[in-house]
Amino acid sequence: MSLAAPLPVEQLAQRCAEETEKFNQRQINDPQFCFELLRRALADGVAEAFTRVYQIYERQVLGWVHSHSGFARTGESADYFARSALSAFYFALRGPKFAQFPSLPQVLAYLKLCVHSTIAQYLRDQRPWLDLPLEAVVSPAKTPDLGIDLHVAEIWEYLCSLLPDERDRLLARCAFILDLKPRQINELHPGLWAGEREISVALYRIRQLLRADTTLRRWMGLDGEF
């Protein structure tokens, strides 16, 4: 049995907050307490546990909102997107669906994806798709098989044709949409790449390929980098 399993929610939340602060300070930390708190909140549906999750991760979520390239164009408050993302996160991972995420980095990566998807969806609803950068249009939460707008589906299909390798597509999503660093990608998907250097080299290759494609640049109306 882990050290986290027998703890009541209050003590679990306290340990999670402490370990989160260690992580933010780049100190050695133990993820089991936060993972157990998230498991109780989502898999077990313990309301008190989710309240603590909200309190602990709200600051991180707000940081992700502020760092998103499209946030400034929304005109909304960061709190609005934080609430929306945490709500989407709760409904997406509650119950048995939580079992699909066996580690804390994977759970938090999905939470970050909820932030990006929430902002991207808001921008799609408010503005013509041609005005948006690549990361705001091509979202892993909005793939062609979900019946989305034809323009977005066409862009995603074309992007996939440029990146036929499934690992390249996954890497593009992690780097361009989730804004994960090579170290974080390597931790989230252990064994898929030999290490951070291989990820960095692959990302350089992917960026060069996408930048060089005139059709993609014309569709997206991009003159600079993405």
Please report the number of helical segments. Answer: 12
- How many angstroms does the end-to-end distance come to? 46 Å
- Series of secondary-structure elements, N-terminal to C-terminal: HHHHHHHHHHHH
Share of residues in helices: 55-70%
Number of domain modules: 2
Integer average pLDDT = 80
| Rg from alpha-carbon coordinates | 19 Å
The protein's oligomeric status is single chain
The total of beta strands comes to 0
User: What general outline do the C-alpha atoms trace?
Assistant: globular
Key phrases:
single chain, 226 residues, 67% helix, 0% strand
Describe this structure in words.
It is built from twelve helices and no strands. With 226 residues, it is an all-alpha fold. It has two domains: 1-127, no CATH class; 130-226, no CATH class. The longest helix has 23 residues, at 104-126. The chain is globular and about 55 Å long. The protein starts with 8 loop residues before the first helix and ends in a 6-residue tail after the last helix. The model is unreliable at 128-151 (pLDDT under 50).
Question: Could you provide a short overview of the structure?
Answer:
The protein is an all-alpha fold. Helices cover 67% and strands 0% of the residues.
Helix-strand layout with pairing:
Elements: H1 9-24, H2 32-42, H3 47-67, H4 71-74, H5 78-93, H6 104-126, H7 134-137, H8 150-162, H9 166-177, H10 182-188, H11 196-212, H12 214-220
Helix pairs in contact: 1-2, 1-3, 2-3, 3-5, 5-6, 9-11, 10-11
